[in-house]
Amino acid sequence: MDDARFPRIVDWNLFFVFHEIIRTGGVSAAARSLNRQQPSVSASLKRLEEQFGTALCERSAQGVQPTEAGRALYQLCETMLSQVRRMPHDVALAAGRDRPPVRLLMISDLVSPELDQATAAFHRNRPGAAVRLEVAPWRAVVAALEKGEADIGVTCDGAASPSLAYTPLTREIQQLYCGSGHPLFGTPPREPYDYAGEGFVLTGDDEPEELLAYRRAHGLGSPVLAIAETLYETRRLLELGIGVGFLPTAVAERSEVEGKLWPLLPRDCLLSYDVHVAVRRGKVSADAQALLGLIQSALTPAVA
Q1: Are 189 and 263 spatial neighbours (Cβ–Cβ below 8 Å)?
Q2: pLDDT, position 303
């Protein structure tokens, strides 16, 4: 292969498609991720293999696996994508324009004084810097970080992604609640198994893996009376007396004090898990690194 000619004849989009095939573990999964037809993705892989004159993937029981040449190319694609993602930021800085905001993506209704403290300090310490805050289900947070579409994520990811670095932020405690109009309101706490068969309000894609496993282990969650995509809407439906459902205790605390929600499980039966701050391993922008450092500092107890 003529090294000097290769950059002029190769379709650079093929590298992105190949990277997505390996990242997602298959041609079908890559097609869904890229919103393309499977034959188109297969054809792109074939064209790239023809360009290099060697097989880059092989199918196995675990899905599509890279060959030795494919693994080498995947690492090169990782480097290229990292550089491409930084282009808007670096060009904006070189042109003297305002730097892009730090993209912070987080799960809904999170209660974290440390995160609030760090965000306020960031705006005091870095004039001209901005934070773009968005809310999404935890799976979407992880996917955005992996693709470089977010700088910092806050997630309850129970199945840690190897491409991300995690810092424990807070610990959420899940309690089972019902609203004031529900027949169980005001009843003594019971064991989780006692609520099998109760109509449920589920939190959809925002439900942590740990909570899903807990529900299944105790036979909870059926029949489903309603599904809400955020904790705010879940709390709202429960307050209306529509079934029972899980909420983090910090999210439900005010409604419980006001007599709108009633806890149904004893304290020794409550599920808890860590919520993490996550970033993609490797280079992040200076502003994102500054915000991450402030979050980590807020989480570190002061030494007398």
Answers
A1: yes
A2: 37
pLDDT of residue 29: 87
pTM of the model: 0.63
Rounded to whole angstroms, how far apart are CA atoms 32 and 286? Answer: 33
pLDDT digits (tens, 9 = 90+) for 215-232: 999 999 999 999 988 888
Burial of 244 (C-beta count, 10 Å sphere; 0-12/13-18/19+): buried
Long-range contacts of 221-224 (CB under 8 A, 24+ apart): 222/197, 223/197, 223/199, 224/199, 224/200
Average pLDDT (256-275) is: 95
Q: Are 154 and 141 in contact (CB under 8 A)?
A: yes
**Are the C-beta atoms of residues 288 and 177 closer than 8 Å to each other?**
no
Write the CA distances from 159 to 22, 40, 152, 195, integer angstroms: 19, 31, 17, 27
Round to whole Å and give the CA distance between 210 and 129: 36
